[in-house]
């Protein structure tokens, strides 16, 4: 884990809202009078549900290798509308696995089985009648390493929309490419070279191109799996600002290994540990006043 022994006050949350006891030394997560939940108690601490969720996960288990290995253990968690929910925890704790259950990307892994119920706007996405192709447009995904298609910038954005039948002619496609690139904060940098290959852009631009491609097919939820870990600090800051904009229109679930990033961009944070969801709460609470010993140890750099 990164050597992060001091806590950083969430940039945006901190600016808007002072922690309950702002006189207390913010370098030490406070426990107040609450006793921390002991390490061996693996029941989720905190509010798992929200009113009117975009997605609702109930008792989700995930197994690999045809049942030999259990990677996710009875997780119940809602994804709210217009929220950024950050998923943190030590490497191998199941963050990516859980994220992939939200758009059935685990279906593509041989020997992987998902149990439980996951709904999008009330509809179980694991029902037999659900077609995963439109599902993955509704719940889009951005990966750690930017992966533009070996096509032009224009075609990278237009491709999915054409396949999904969202555009009928050149004018509509031009419009969609422009609005998607604008929303991804990339338009001004590429508008004069739309015919050039997407792979020729810088890493940060490629990641925004992948976000534009995701936006173009009209998602409700955007999943991001460590989307900045291959980017430099400036490109990272641009993506973080973009996430702040996108949350006005979408629900965003983001896996990050950077606690600073989680504190800057998310409203809620979920802490995972060895396949369990240990704690879920507002980002402010998780970082300033964790309730579980394991969360406390992780955010103070004692574990990982
Ligand atoms: N395709 C796979 N096949 C078998 N085991 C896997 C596979 N992907 C992940 N795992 C295992 O599942 C656990 C959770 O992994 P992962 O979700 O990638 O964790 P994280 O994203 O938190 O690092 C780990 O023990 C990992 O080795
Ligand atoms: Mg991962």
TrEMBL record:
CDD domains reported in the protein's UniProt record: ABC_PstB_phosphate_transporter
Ranges annotated as biased composition (Basic and acidic residues): 13-26
Region of interest (Disordered), residue spans: 1-51
Gene Ontology cellular component annotations, sorted alphabetically: membrane
E.C. designation(s): 3.6.3.27
GO molecular function: ATP binding; ATP hydrolysis activity; phosphate transmembrane transporter activity
NCBIfam families for this protein: 3a0107s01c2 (TIGR00972)
Keyword check for Protease: no
PROSITE patterns: ABC_TRANSPORTER_1, ABC_TRANSPORTER_2
Keywords assigned by UniProt, alphabetized: ATP-binding, Hydrolase, Nucleotide-binding, Phosphate transport, Transport
Transmembrane segments: none
Gene Ontology biological process terms from the UniProt entry: phosphate ion transmembrane transport
Domain ABC transporter: 55-299
PANTHER family (alphabetical): ABC TRANSPORTER I FAMILY MEMBER 17 (PTHR43423:SF1)
Protein name: PstB1
Gene: pstB1
């Amino acid at each position: 884990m990164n050597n992060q022994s001091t806590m950083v006050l969430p940039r945006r949350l901190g600016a808007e809202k002072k922690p309950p006891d702002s006189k207390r030394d913010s370098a030490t997560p406070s426990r107040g009078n609450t006793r921390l939940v002991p390490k061996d108690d693996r029941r989720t601490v905190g509010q798992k549900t929200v009113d009117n969720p975009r997605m609702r996960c109930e008792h989700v288990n995930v197994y690999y290798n045809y049942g030999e290995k259990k990677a996710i253990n009875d997780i119940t968690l809602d994804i709210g509308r217009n929220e950024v929910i950050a998923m943190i925890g030590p490497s191998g704790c199941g963050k990516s696995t859980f994220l992939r259950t939200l758009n059935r990307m685990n279906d593509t892994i041989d020997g992987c089985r998902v149990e439980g119920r996951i709904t999008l706007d009330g509809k179980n996405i694991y029902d037999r009648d659900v077609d995963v192709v439109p599902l993955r447009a509704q719940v889009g995904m951005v990966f750690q390493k930017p992966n533009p298609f070996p096509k032009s910038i224009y075609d990278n954005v237009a491709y999915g929309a054409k396949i999904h039948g969202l555009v009928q002619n050149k004018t509509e496609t031009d419009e969609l490419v422009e609005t998607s690139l604008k929303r991804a904060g990339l338009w001004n940098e590429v508008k004069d070279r739309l015919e050039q290959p997407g792979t020729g852009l810088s890493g940060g631009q490629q990641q925004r191109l992948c976000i534009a491609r995701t936006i173009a097919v009209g998602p409700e939820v955007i999943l991001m799996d460590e989307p900045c870990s291959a980017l430099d600090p400036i490109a990272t800051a641009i993506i973080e600002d973009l996430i702040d904009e996108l949350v006005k229109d979408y629900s965003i679930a983001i896996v990050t290994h950077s606690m600073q990033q989680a504190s800057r961009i998310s409203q809620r944070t979920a802490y995972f540990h060895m396949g369990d969801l240990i704690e879920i709460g507002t980002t402010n609470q998780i970082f300033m006043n964790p309730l579980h010993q394991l969360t406390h140890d992780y955010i103070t750099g004692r574990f990982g």
